[in-house]
Fold:
Amino acid sequence: VQLVESGGGLVQPGGSLRLSCAASGFTFSDYAMTWVRQAPGKGPEWVSVINSGGGNTYYEDSVKGRFTISRDNARNTLYLQMDSLKPEDTAVYYCAKWKNRKDPSSWGQGTQVTVSS
Structure:
C-alpha cells in the first residue's frame, strides 16, 4: 500500500490549495478514504471522509463549507480542495484509508500546508 500526498505549500489567509493523494497497491475504489491533519505540538485531527463511490462526504465542523473532498477512482486519486484558508489550518495533511485513520504507520508521508501572511 502506498499513499503519496502532494499540493501543499505556503498560502496567505483567504487563499486556496488543492491537495492530491495518489494511491497504489490496493483496490482504491473499494475503500472509504479520509484526510487527517496534524498541527505542530498537537495530536492528529480528522478533517474529512468520502465513501468508496464518492457519493457521501463528511467534514469536521471547523472546515465545513470551506473544504471539499473528492476522488477519482479511475485515477486512484483522492483530493482535498481547501478554500478560505485560515492560519489555524496550518498542519501536515495526510491521506489514509478510513479504516486506518487511527494508525499513523499506514498514512502517507504528508504534505505541509502553511497559512500565513
